[in-house]
């Protein structure tokens, strides 16, 4: 099982997704929770590393379980996801090549989608926060 913390940052009813250098799939911004680290601490660290900004305020959106995309079949993802306000405009930093905001339909139309991201898109759509 891979434990991660992820950011669900919505702007103009679209959800932010990040693409790592050398990859073609967009994922939730965030990453693995280090040993002894809390999901909140991982959120703060990963957002700073990947988006070059800090987390000003956050709220836990939920814990999502899915197949871990890009890993051996059967590897499960345990993703603690947070909505958050950031202290600046996110920009690609560290290992991130590109950031994009998607509606549910735009993301689902991609050639490859991360199952964990799709769960978050659906949840945010149910809450009326992102467009279909």
From TrEMBL:
It comes from the Bacteria. InterPro entries: NUDIX_hydrolase-like_dom_sf (IPR015797), NUDIX_hydrolase_CS (IPR020084), NUDIX_hydrolase_dom (IPR000086). Keywords: Hydrolase. Residues 1-126 form the Nudix hydrolase domain. Signal peptide: none annotated. One of its GO terms (molecular function) is hydrolase activity. The keyword ATP-binding does not apply. Its cofactor is Mg(2+). Transmembrane segments: none annotated. This is NUDIX domain-containing protein. It comes from Nocardia bhagyanarayanae.
């Amino acid at each position: 099982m891979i434990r991660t913390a992820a950011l669900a940052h919505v702007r103009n009813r679209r959800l932010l997704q990040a693409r790592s250098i050398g990859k073609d799939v967009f994922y939730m911004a965030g990453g693995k929770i280090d040993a002894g680290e809390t999901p909140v601490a991982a959120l703060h660290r990963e957002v700073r590393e990947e988006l070059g900004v800090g987390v000003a305020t956050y709220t836990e959106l939920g814990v999502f379980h899915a197949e871990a995309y890009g890993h051996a079949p059967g590897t499960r993802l345990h993703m603690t996801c947070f909505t958050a306000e950031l202290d600046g405009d996110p920009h690609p930093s560290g290992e991130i090549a590109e950031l994009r905001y998607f509606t549910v339909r735009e993301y689902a139309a991609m050639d490859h989608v991360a199952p964990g991201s799709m769960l978050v898109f659906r949840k945010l759509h149910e809450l009326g926060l992102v467009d279909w």
